[in-house]
Amino acid sequence: MTIGIEQIVNQLRNILAYEQVSTNETVRELHGRDESHHATSLPDIVVFPHSTADVSAILQIAHAARVAVVPFGVGSSLEGNAIPIEQGISIDFSKMNTILDIRPEDLLVKVQPGVTRSQLNKELKKHGLQFTVDPGADATLGGMAATNASGTTAVRYGVMRDQVRDLEVVLADGTVIHTGSLAAKSSSGYHLNGLFVGSEGTLGCFTELTLKVYGIPEFVTAGRAVFPTVGEAVSAVAALLQAGIMVGRVELVDEASMVQANIYNETSYEEKPTLFLEFHGNETGMQEDIEFATAIFEDFNCSSIAFETDNAARNKLWEARHSLAYAYIHAYPGKKLMSTDVCVPISVLAETILYARKQLDAVGLAGGLVGHVGDGNFHALLMLDPANAEEQAKADRFNEHIVQYALLRGGSCTGEHGVGIGKMKYQATEHGASLLVMKSIKAALDPHNIMNPGKIFTM
Amino acid sequence: MTIGIEQIVNQLRNILAYEQVSTNETVRELHGRDESHHATSLPDIVVFPHSTADVSAILQIAHAARVAVVPFGVGSSLEGNAIPIEQGISIDFSKMNTILDIRPEDLLVKVQPGVTRSQLNKELKKHGLQFTVDPGADATLGGMAATNASGTTAVRYGVMRDQVRDLEVVLADGTVIHTGSLAAKSSSGYHLNGLFVGSEGTLGCFTELTLKVYGIPEFVTAGRAVFPTVGEAVSAVAALLQAGIMVGRVELVDEASMVQANIYNETSYEEKPTLFLEFHGNETGMQEDIEFATAIFEDFNCSSIAFETDNAARNKLWEARHSLAYAYIHAYPGKKLMSTDVCVPISVLAETILYARKQLDAVGLAGGLVGHVGDGNFHALLMLDPANAEEQAKADRFNEHIVQYALLRGGSCTGEHGVGIGKMKYQATEHGASLLVMKSIKAALDPHNIMNPGKIFTM
Question: Which of the residues A237, B28, B133, B296 has an alpha carbon 20 to 30 A from that of B92?
Fold first, then answer.
């Protein structure tokens, strides 16, 4: 940095209101961490823009001063994605949280980046609409676009990238661009929507998002099916997808996790690999899909299967899955949750999960496996004390083993959490010469490397 | 070019077999045009690679010699996308037409770029699978990825970009990269799949494609519904989609086109705006969807509706839609078909189609309107003699009017044909400052501008 923090603060105060620029220690601390186990690093300054013009002016100052800038939503990222490891300016988007436009006929909505998932769905419900991406956390839509978030519904509706029709982006030098249009499809020019989604703040700041929404399904049925082995559960899901049955959600919870869920909820569910399902659709078609699914599950030795349609009973049926993270956190007071995130072709998913289980037992860490099995994406939920170097080293070794296993089988080191800090070391192996292409794009768009520097890859 | 064509031919002959390098006039002519009205321009040399290594070696030579390179599939593009306007080397991928791997459990297939759509579907059928993108022409999959093709099934299964899991790409300097993986989703690094799909040969040559495939639906029903006006037909489709009814295909054919179809097929269908539909799914669910669709259509004054389930009857029902391009070509011997391609938000589709009809009548060209109405994408099919400057000028003026109309309403100048030569003039209006981002990416990846130069934008 060629000029001091104080000068930058003065420059920012020239263009923003007093309360929009903070160097308060507590405010900086809130912007120095996320929900991951990665080390805290405080920004020098936190700014709270109200508009695209504010963001553009902030970036012009940062660009001229060569100071690092990190966009910040609610800090729910899981790989240190929003931690300002080179300090500088954290741009907090919480004041840009307006739902700008709902277009039911176009099944589109335009929002500011600080709008959260639950805030949007509450508003959409009035129109009989829903936003489908559900990563668990009540993240901001800007943050979800930045990491290409997904979650339990991706098997049916796709990931965050599939929902983005247009982004307004402020580039590193303050230039404002739009990456798409309102058209449902386009073959006009390079697909910048896809490039910016998942760029984790390294290419620019999102200031508006135009997103696809869906009608709330007429009927929803929840299901739970128990299998003797993880292999049989995963094979049953693969068969379901091959048969073209549209499942709304399909989640695997392993034996160890069912044990934790029983303790936490004081329940007595069978402690065997269990699939949690949802079917969305019209009543009779869904009934036929459920009958077909039941027949497939029986072919894979499913020992018990239950379905529920009313809302309370559906929530009860999914209880073990819903409460899983809490169950682990509750069982290991003082420890932090760490989540791995590989995604593999579904043909090798069962063997990858079994390998992960074996490795987890071998390193001797407490944890379980939970998977978005329709997509081949699963998480090992590990409980560890980040201050305990030995535990952290074990967790890192375990993560390394399953990532390498996944990459060798054509998979990805991260299905939905993003690269952040934690997955940087796998980028060269996963992408090979492509990594140079990514770096050349980054260099072209952010020549001074001010946008979330030190994330995804080092320049 | 710093060295002569003869020297380049010699260099190419050093690395390829004799028959893989051609300067024959007839061969060059076959590679100097596509199915559009754009002017022919012959390449100096046509090469026929057999492998990725061949393509890499060809590009190394071209890169060193600063000679233009244009990838070529079967020449079915509609905007001059594969016409070598700066001459140089046309790379014909017809010898790289092997289906490399079919993975039913992963619903994936790996193909070389010269494999055609019908070739792939013939092979997939043996496994109960289908590749869904259907642009009409029997294009190569490499070409379809290059223009981000789509067609009648996009409303249900998405466009070409949605199907691409991984591309092997040879960059301008001969470097070979992979843009994705076999994982169904990934948040690892920049989304190069999305960037390369639709890049029209300006960023590299595709040498392998890993694509998503689907189970052949259990039941298919075809439908045809007649409406008093285009507005009512389009509103009915919007209501269908808002209700969450999954339609497999939904095509609008306007009055003028129904007239042509009746003449060509010697039929007597009502000469009114007509929707052609397909429903895919399980038997009972589909039946419920069809009943719901019928009720919606009646709300929009549908005057007649018919459904068919067996294959021959389905084809008969769709006859007018299927034969449309032939009907026009047959009616205007000696003229060439020109197709416009805007895509707009569905809320303004009806008014855009009505505007197009009015403009078409105003310029006095023969033609009709046909639309992938579920996506907001429609084509005006114009018959013209490209040698007749006045007719060409009229067609250009008409196209200009509807593109500007669409862009003002948040649409795109091309829904599926790509930019090629014909839509270059609209790129600045459509993309604004984004166009500079696209150019900076192009400059970073192809610094000597050898890859399909003069397409999409000029550097």
Answer: B133
